[in-house]
Amino acid sequence: MTQIKIVADKNALVTSASDFIINKIKETIANKNICSIALAGGSTPKPIYQNIAQSDLPWDKIHVFWGDERYVPPTHPDSNEKMAREAWLNQVDIPAQNIYPMPTLGNNPMADASKYEQELKDFFGVANGFPSFDIILLGMGDDGHTASLFPHTNALKECDRLITVGNKEDNQRLTFTVPLINHAQWVIFLVSGKNKQEALKAVFDQESDSDQYPSKKIQPQGELIWFIDEDANSIRN
Ligand SMILES: O=C(O)[C@H](O)[C@@H](O)[C@H](O)[C@H](O)COP(=O)(O)O
């Protein structure tokens, strides 16, 4: 099922999405005694991660992954891992072994993608098929990309692997594939800003091309919820 939450502004999006994610983590742990969550990169999630770091959660039961990563060292200013560790993970008592950053130091993106894929299979205990993350956080670019699934790239065609290499122009990235995202229990989109209006309208347009607007390919078997602020909103009055 898809839910759409239109909120007044970025602050309201940060507050409502933070509360929702924290409650979803608590609910998952109450049901399963564990929670697997994959993080989004970019700028929108950072204040949400800072809020989550202030919450009272059983950190030892939370396992943190990344849905995509720029192919740079974890010390690089563009690193999604760096952003999440500084905003959240370094501020809480989460065991180091509960944090699973995407490997980006092998100087071979596809080999590192395979390495992370194996790490996921080992964690979830699935040799074949797709594991089901409890929660996957996603942003959406102004071109309609999500994770590092960019328009008209080969990554969009990957339907067997869990992790592949995405390309933003000539910058390589590691990314969850569409089928891996679509196997999640909860997929949460975080979309803020006027620059997202056109892409968002296209993503919700039944006639649009999902290869042009890859966020449209995200139709999880579980629940999908969009947090959208009024600046980005072009789908509902
Ligand atoms: O590594 C990344 O950059 C993200 O995973 C990417 O998919 C991001 O979520 C969108 O580009 C939106 O980014 P903003 O939140 O900064 O608008």
Mean pLDDT: 97
Question: What is the CATH C level class, in words?
Answer: Alpha Beta
Number of self-contained structural domains = 1
What structural category characterises the helix and strand content? Answer: alpha/beta
Strand order within the widest sheet?
1-10-9-6-2-3-5
Strand fraction band? 15-25%
**CATH architecture type:** 3-Layer(aba) Sandwich
Helix content: 25-40%
Task: Tell me the Rg in angstroms.
Answer: 17 Å
Enumerate how many helices there are, as a single number. Answer: 6
Broad shape: globular
The main sheet comes to: 7 strands, parallel
Bound ligands: 6-phosphogluconic acid
CATH topology call: Rossmann fold
Q: Which runs of at least 5 residues are low in confidence (pLDDT < 50)?
A: none
Distance between the termini: 21 Å
Order of helices and strands: EHEHEEHEHEEEHEHE
* Total beta strands: 10
